[in-house]
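Internal tracking record. Fields below are filled automatically when a chain is submitted to the structure queue. Please do not edit lines marked as system-generated. If the sequence contains nonstandard residues, flag them in the REMARKS field before resubmitting.
Queue: standard
Priority: normal
Entity type: single polypeptide chain
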Amino acid sequence: MLDNYTAGTAKTLFLEAVGDNVKDACFITNNATGPGILNVLYEKPDLRFLCIDEIEKIPRDQLAVLLTLMESGKFIITKKIMMV
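SYSTEM-GENERATED OUTPUT FOLLOWS
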């Protein structure tokens, strides 16, 4: 986790500038979820750079999906239907 010395250093502004000005880059703000990130990657298959602000706030189980994607280079979307 980042320490207090990094607060207020314009990290978010920097990542927004990257997302706005670098071709094939996308900036995801806080409140991101693993499924939300996978949705962005699915919608933009040619994306080369993904900037995620406050990635440490993503729940660990959802982050595992992203880590698996980074290791394998592939992701599989499954749908589960539950009936009550």
